[in-house]
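Review session, final week

We close the course with one last complete record, chosen because it touches almost every idea we covered. It is Mitochondrial aspartate-glutamate transporter AGC1, a protein from Coemansia interrupta with 684 residues. Go through it on your own first, then we will talk.
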Amino acid sequence: MTTRATQNQQYQPLPASEVARYSEIFDAYADTEASSQGARCMSPVAFAQAITPSAEASGNGSSLYAAFFAVADREARGVLTKGDFIYFQTLLSQHDAASSLPFHAVSRSTDKGTVEASALARLIGNDSAASNYLRGKSHVSYAEFAQLIESARADRIRSAFASADADDSGSISPEQAYAIAREFAPLESSSIVASRLSLLGQSPSTHAIGYPTFLALVSLLSDPVRIRRAVDEAMHSLPPKQKADASVTQVTRPDFAGATSLLTPLEIDVLFTLAAGQANAESATLSSINDITHSCYRSLVSAGSEKQQLKSESSDVDHQKKPSRTILQETLFQAYNFAVGAVAGGIGAAVVYPIDLVKTRMQNQRVAVVGEMMYKNSIDCFRKVVRNEGALGLYRGLGPQLVGVAPEKAIKLTVNDFVRARLTDKDTGKIAFVSELVAGATAGASQVVFTNPLEIVKIRLQIQGEMLKETAGAAAPIARRGAVTIIKELGLLGLYKGASACLLRDVPFSAIYFSCYSHLKKDVFREGERQLGIVDLLLAGAIAGMPAAYLTTPADVIKTRLQVVAKKGETVYNGLFDAARKIYKEEGFKAFFKGGPARIVRSSPQFGTTLMCYELIHRMIPFPGEEHDTKPSVDRVAQRARELSSQTALFQAANALRLLHDSNYKFGSPVLPAKSSVSPAQAV
């Protein structure tokens, strides 16, 4: 075997951000005990732990990845410095890393020279199929070595399939396909790919997978980078309108095949079947196709990269929440946020206020009263308000609402962020679902100090139009009162009448809303992988408001009844439980959901509009010195793409060593890889 040479090749350097990331991974696994000189170094065991994919860390995969320690150890010292580790990652980022790394490991050389044929023969055994590559040679070049690896892989796949196809039917079961494929491609038992292998069957009754389909499957999954590039090409071919909603846009197989030449027709058939979850699928979303790539990525990412990525994402969030500012700058920044929140909240409240007025009057309408019902339904109520009070009547009570929006939104958002930050795991950057509910509930409880006085004044102003109409012909008609007059009549304690019902409504509302909003942004609109657009934010806020608004309608009905002054002949309520009991007794269970649809129609667009306006104002009128740059988000996507490429190369390089070294993988061997204990069917 050739002697160890000095590294004399020029490699494409890593970006500074990735050098810093790999430096942190090194620091996490290095210690002073590995070096006799007391410097922080990485031992062979620590190196294997840092680079081995999480999916293989618990098995025997670490020993294969440990073979690359000799490649990283440029000076043959038995330990790695930080420079050695970053040098290895640089090698891994090169376009031919899948071939060059096993060559370096076999030749123990840092250049792409030659390896002794006799040493290579001892490694792979005396096999007739391999002798064609070694016959008459004293040395094997790097190019010949790379071709040998590719031939060995193809031969092994063919032999394994033939061994599994005992009855010579030309097909194997999904379980057998899974057992073989996972030896050549990043495939976990819990992945969506493993759970859908039966869809690739030639027959719906047997689900047997033919050899051509199996080859396409292995070829596809062995190189997830190719899938990602094919999706990018397909996305570029979409019309501008479809690009904006590419995650939900359906793409047909013919259109996809016409947009990329990276995949064969059969590979595209396999990809669409796995992505759509339907045999012979004719269409799929680009998002579902990307999920196949993400499935491979989760199998490939190393434990070290995963830990560092979570840490860096968590620190990014902390950095955004706690920017380095002086006391004066921080005060001005919070005042700026308060003003933006007030304007955005005011716009959201004004947009839906007519709906809120109709909702309030419908909820206050009693059945057990003297005389006929004033409104038949919400539409009838809307028409009568406009006819009797004019268009401005739809906005009666808007003033106090706008005044109260600023502190209400400010305290709700601040408390939710404050509690979430303290319930988030500092190591992983994740927050449990229960903790999300607690944060939202706390925010809802804290806002009642502002919302209850606001609500009671607003409701009395909204109901005032009815009372004015009813007493218009009386000897002593009721005079119109303003917000200030109502506040004086109520007094401080009166402003908090119905506060228990307000708590019963706002606590669960905020718990449901903030939890749904967070998961919609993360799981549906993929926040973090891309910048969320205005439509994304509007939809996330609107959709989250729907269940929150409807499920808390009973508490809102009770609150409205408690805060409205009862007219002559109407039931008087003495507290939360008394109101609930009398409403149920006199009007039935359905009365608790009066105005429920109106609450959805009001709350859903209100929260969506508020968040949309908040983002727009921040972007249009940014705080001096604050740049709303999307580059960090874009960088994370690019970083994930580069890591997917590097980790794919590392997986393939380790697989190449396995092919050469493992006796089960000698040329012509018919031995089938050991089956996994978990079958695709069990993984569903």
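Two points worth writing down before the exam:
Strands lie at 114-116, 139-141, 171-172, 209-210, 250-252, 283-285.
Residues 1-8, 312-323, 629-634, 663-684 have pLDDT under 50 and may be disordered.
Good luck, everyone.
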